[in-house]
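Ticket #4471: structure output looks truncated?

Reporter: J.K.
Steps to reproduce: submitted the chain below (430 residues) through the standard prediction queue, then opened the result file.
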Amino acid sequence: MNYQEALNYIASINWKGSVPGLDRIRELLDKMGNPQDRLKFIHVGGTNGKGSVCAFLSSILVQAGYKTGLFISPYIEVFNERMQINNNNISDEELAEITTYVRPFADSMADAPTEFELNTAIAMEFFSRNDCDIVILEVGMGGELDSTNIIKCPLLTIITAISLDHTEYLGDTIEKIAKTKSGIIKSGTKTVIYKQAPSVINVIRERCDLVGAELFVSEPETVEFQSANVDRQLIYHPDFGNLAIMLLGRYQTENIAVVIKAVQVLRTIGFSITNGDVAKGLEATRWPGRFEVIMHEPIFIVDGAHNPQGAKATAQSIRSVFQDEKLIMIFGVLADKDYIDMIQSILPMSKEILTVTPDSPRALSADKTANVIKSISAGQMKVTAYESIGDAIEAAFAKAGTTIPICAVGSLYMVGNIKKYVSERSRKDY
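Returned output as attached by the reporter:
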């Protein structure tokens, strides 16, 4: 298979959707000789902040000299983002080669693997062939029955902020979701968790006590926010001093508290990571689609805040950078999210809202989204629905001129399309 044929093959099985369970991935990896057993892992689960924590840790470990694999989902612009080594995407050629290798094993299974399971297997082979020192493995959904949980005991387990999401699969309370996500904690592993609701911490502590895992809770109070603009934010930590962070978003201070705790734990198990590695790694971190500035005149931000907790974080970040200034918002959301709560978070920051339909069968239509916003705002917010993302972006530019900031917020399924459109537009003569 060539690269495009590999992508077509992977996409051809996405009809199966999400089917929790480890039997299929176990069978597939057994047929492949269990490449995951030749690797060491940091396993990262949670609802919000997983991607940022993975990106920060990867950058720090690369800075410290470790050959670092990174497995993430979803991708923003190109499929290859899912599998990286030293922050470089898998090449088209290697993706095609490994997919060609994996396909006969997958095709021979009576119960075919899901798309995510196939991606997991390809990634394990990729990291194993390249002799990674450590792999940062992001959970797809849930925990206990997620295909990434096929690995044996990782060196470190991290659980980030937990909120209500995928409730049809994971449970209808944050405590139930925490129990499902804590299923990645294994006997003897060290576990770092985001400091959050006591009820959530207690659920995770119970899991740690049950399996004999050592628990460490992050200390967000030690990370002091100092200032932010559209290019970077400055923070302070008593052990690491002043730190510059290129990832925007006020919420990143709490993610960095998780990362710092993880670094401290990794040092206790033999990792050589200096304070300088941490500072340089944090500053070098880039993560697409998370409160990312993609243009400066006008300022244009994209943020894949896909649930209520994410939308609240976006609102906080807008306040920290723009204070009381109102923004033109482009908003698109999936119908199975708590979009009412999300809308309530972004309304106070909005000068006007342009609604779009994300590229997903689960999307809430732009028209329905606009009607909900009108209802919530009692008709006070100016809202317009657009048939295409391109139409919404052009309208936003026309309304913004060069002075009014634009923020596209909502589903990750639309962030990549927005970035692509704006990038292509900037190369034309507008």
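Triage note (M.O.): checked the attachment and the full token line is present. The longest strand covers residues 327-332.
Status: closed, working as intended.
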